[in-house]
Amino acid sequence: MRTMVEIFERLLAEVRRVMAKRKTTLRALAEEGLRRVVREKHGSSPPPMPDAVFPDDPGFANGVNVANLPEIIRAEIHHQTVRQ
C-alpha cells in the first residue's frame, strides 16, 4: 500500500543517519516503528533490554555476573522508567 506522510526536516535528517548506519530503507524503518507501536498497544512486546555489553569491549563490564543479568536488567528498566 502506498501512502504519503509529512515528516519534519529535523526528524528526517536523523532518520537518514539511521538509514545509512543500518543500511536500510525508510520503508523498513517505518514498518519496524509501526510494528513496535502495535505490539506495545497490545502488550505483547517486552520492554527493551538495555545494552549490557560495551561496543569496544567484547565482554561484560567489570563486576557483571551473567547469573545476575535478569536482576540488573530489571533495575535498569526501573531506573529508566523513573527518569522519564
Properties at a glance:
84 residues; mainly alpha; elongated
The ordered string of helix (H) and strand (E) elements is HHH
Shape: elongated
State the major sheet: none
End-to-end CA span: 36 Å
Beta-strand share of residues: under 5%
* Cα Rg: 17 Å
Number of helices, where a helix is a run of at least 4 consecutive DSSP H or I residues: 3
Poorly predicted runs of 5 or more residues: none
Give the total of beta strands.
0
Percentage of residues in helical conformation: 40-55%
Overall pLDDT score: 78
Question: Can you characterise this structure?
Answer:
With 84 residues, this protein is mostly helical. It is built from three helices and no strands. It has two domains: 1-45; 48-84.
What is the element layout, followed by pairings?
Elements: H1 9-22, H2 26-42, H3 69-83
Short summary of the structure?
The chain is mainly α and 84 residues long. Helices cover 55% and strands 0% of the residues.
